[in-house]
UniProtKB/TrEMBL annotation:
CDD domains: RNase_PH_bact (cd11362)
Function (record text): Phosphorolytic 3'-5' exoribonuclease that plays an important role in tRNA 3'-end maturation. Removes nucleotide residues following the 3'-CCA terminus of tRNAs; can also add nucleotides to the ends of RNA molecules by using nucleoside diphosphates as substrates, but this may not be physiologically important. Probably plays a role in initiation of 16S rRNA degradation (leading to ribosome degradation) during starvation.
Quaternary structure (record): Homohexameric ring arranged as a trimer of dimers.
Protein name: Ribonuclease PH
Chemical reaction(s) catalysed: tRNA(n+1) + phosphate = tRNA(n) + a ribonucleoside 5'-diphosphate
This protein's record includes keyword Manganese: no
Enzyme class: transferase
GO biological process: rRNA 3'-end processing; rRNA catabolic process; tRNA processing
Length: 238
């Protein structure tokens, strides 16, 4: 019944390749089905002015889609002179999601910027960016700890995200583009590896949903995030 032939509770095939760029303090290429995102982490000995002198660290993110990451070419936002509303919303989501899994006191007064560049899009780019972004963050923090710049581990729990929705009247896990574009209900779930909620984005896209259906989607999300967290740990040796 799903276009891909997957079971209702089955994720797309996920792979995480680490250290894919030479210069970044942490990097990975995450593939969730046909959605591919390059995530890099940059360490800087500075923080935004509003927390300067507080002793707290900061994690932020930027997000973008390459011109041919989709079926037709999209114009680079730099060429348009400004970021679109969708881009701003997604990169803010990535930043606050990753910060939720960070002990900012332990991180110390430094900033880590996570850049998420979508190479190929087939649904769930924000979720893949959060999941891969944590891997890049983990690798960068590992370098801080190895150098002795950070004493205690500031990453308290993995952070991952997955989409769930109501497709053809059934709750499904990890929507690809054909499902996402036809889903009656679409949701993105950001959670920790231990199952704590960070953010839930859910909306009716043509049909309303019940509390029972929402609970079913939550159960699917917990399953998906647990699988992603296991892959994150495997990739980083955490």
């Amino acid at each position: 019944m799903r276009p891909s032939g997957r079971d209702l509770s089955e994720m797309r095939q996920v792979s995480i390749e680490i250290d894919v760029t030479k210069h970044a303090e942490g990097s990975c290429l995450i593939k969730v089905g046909d959605t591919h995102v390059l995530c890099t982490a940059t360490l800087e000995a500075r923080v935004p002015p509003f927390i300067k002198g507080s002793g707290l660290g900061w994690v932020t993110a930027e997000y973008g889609m390459l011109p041919r990451s989709t079926t037709s070419r999209m114009r680079r936002e730099a060429a348009a002179g400004k970021q679109g509303g969708r881009t701003v919303e997604i990169q803010r989501l990535i930043g606050r999601s990753l910060r939720a899994g960070v002990d900012r006191v332990a991180l110390g007064e430094r900033q880590i910027t996570i850049d998420c560049d979508v190479l190929q899009a087939d649904g769930g780019t924000r979720c893949a960016s959060i999941t891969g972004g944590w891997v890049a963050l983990r690798l960068a923090v590992n370098k801080l700890m190895k150098a002795g710049d950070v004493i205690s581990d500031p990453l308290v729990d993995p952070v991952a995200a997955v989409s769930c929705g109501i497709y053809a009247g059934q709750p499904v896990l990890d929507l690809d583009y054909p499902e996402d574009s036809e889903a009656g209900v679409d949701g993105n779930f950001v959670m920790t590896g231990t199952g704590k909620l960070i953010e839930v984005q859910m909306s009716a896209e043509g049909s309303v949903f019940s509390r029972d259906q929402m609970n079913q989607l939550m159960d699917l999300a917990e399953k998906g995030v647990a699988e992603l967290a296991a892959l994150q740990k495997e990739a980083t040796g955490a």
